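Deliverable D2.4 — example input (structure tokens):
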């Protein structure tokens, strides 16, 4: 299929060099733009684009007049817990009455609450629910997504979650990355050490042999898992060629970031508590020619009323930054990346274009996907946002309570 969009107000985030994997520092605020443009999609890939003055003479099979609309790379949600068996609206009410996230977790709520529901859920119901959530995410600009396990906390339930994600991968047109997050919380009846043995010795080999995960992850935080657990998991995962991602520095800075860097983690996610030493160590890592994408989760900060990741400081240190939703039933019950973009600007002091880069190319890099998507480049997959009619795409984060997206294209199809 050959589709041509004409009379676009503009095209944003163009990469003449599709081998650029991410942008950092000032480059995040300087996307290439073509005004009054056309864009062509052939068989799900970006085929050509340019100024309307250079519109090809040859006709396309389908021509769409997008007068006044912008074309952007679609959002890539690189950190979600989208698969869950039930909401936790009861905990929301508890929080509104003054209980903290940590207090609710200690009382048997939180992740353990979700794990109990997951154990009772059928795979068919989980598949149906996950497909519905993907449809919701797409309406706010998401065209590719990462989904974690972590609400199983047993061999059977973790495998069930990953098999459900695999089934949805096969049923959906949306690109999906699966992450094994067995080390999300310590279930009842286990010591932390014994549960880590179960994760590494029992769960991980089955998951790797069945090809159920693209990454592994761990929640490194006081009361959950330690830096030593992270190092041990990373070593075991490397045996199976599974890259590490990590939850670190959400509530405390206790060395999880440094342990992640030493273990060659692909990304470090959360970073709401980031000390000067943490920032220096992250900067040194990049100066040594290594990469580890910092990922901010502003919807979680909004919901839990905790500090926002210091995105301005990260970018000003000439580092890259990605943004994701952290969509989950307990601390960020939303997949709306238009809202996340707005919060990144309003609360983290990012410019609109820095926010867009963080949601697209840099988000793709945090999943090893930027060779496929995340910018508008010839040959990349056509995962695109067609905005509503507007003068400036900065209207999307500016009007953060609205969704100014006409359609989200996946492989060039609406």
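Example output (designed residues):
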């Amino acid at each position: 299929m050959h589709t041509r969009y004409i009379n676009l107000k503009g095209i944003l985030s163009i990469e003449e060099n599709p081998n650029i994997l991410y942008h950092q520092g000032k480059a995040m605020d300087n996307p290439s733009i073509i005004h009054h443009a056309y864009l062509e999609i052939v068989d799900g890939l970006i085929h050509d684009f340019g100024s309307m003055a250079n519109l090809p003479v040859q006709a396309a099979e389908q021509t769409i007049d997008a007068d006044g609309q912008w074309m952007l790379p679609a959002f890539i949600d690189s950190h979600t817990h989208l698969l869950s068996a039930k909401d936790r609206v009861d905990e929301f009410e508890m929080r509104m009455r003054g209980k903290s996230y940590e207090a609710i977790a200690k009382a048997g709520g939180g992740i353990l609450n979700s794990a109990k529901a997951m154990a009772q859920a059928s795979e068919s119901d989980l598949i149906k629910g996950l497909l519905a959530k993907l449809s919701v995410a797409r309406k706010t600009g998401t065209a590719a997504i990462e989904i974690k396990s972590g609400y199983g906390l047993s061999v059977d339930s973790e495998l069930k979650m990953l098999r459900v994600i695999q089934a949805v991968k096969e049923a959906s047109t949306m690109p999906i990355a699966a992450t094994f997050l067995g080390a999300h919380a310590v279930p009842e009846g286990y010591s932390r050490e014994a549960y880590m043995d179960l994760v590494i010795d029992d769960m991980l080999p089955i998951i790797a042999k069945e090809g159920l995960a693209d990454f592994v992850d761990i929640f490194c935080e006081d009361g959950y898992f330690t830096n030593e657990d992270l190092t041990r998991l990373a070593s075991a995962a490397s045996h199976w060629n599974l890259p590490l991602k990590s939850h670190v520095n959400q509530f405390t800075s206790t060395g999880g970031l440094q342990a992640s860097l030493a273990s060659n983690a692909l990304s470090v996610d959360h970073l709401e508590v980031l000390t000067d030493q943490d920032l220096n160590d992250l900067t040194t890592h990049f100066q040594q020619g290594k990469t580890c994408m910092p990922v901010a989760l502003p919807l979680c900060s909004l919901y839990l009323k905790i500090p926002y990741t210091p995105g301005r400081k990260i970018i000003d240190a000439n580092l890259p930054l990605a943004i994701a939703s952290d969509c989950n039933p307990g601390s960020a019950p939303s997949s709306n990346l238009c809202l996340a973009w707005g919060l990144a600007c309003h609360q983290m002091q990012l410019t609109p274009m820095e926010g867009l880069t963080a949601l697209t190319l840099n988000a793709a890099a945090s999943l090893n996907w930027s060779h496929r998507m995340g910018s508008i480049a010839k040959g990349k997959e056509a995962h695109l946002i067609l905005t509503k009619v507007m003068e400036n795409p900065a209207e999307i984060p500016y009007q953060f309570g609205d969704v100014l997206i006409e359609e989200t294209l996946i492989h060039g199809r609406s």
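The chain is about 35% helix and 20% strand.
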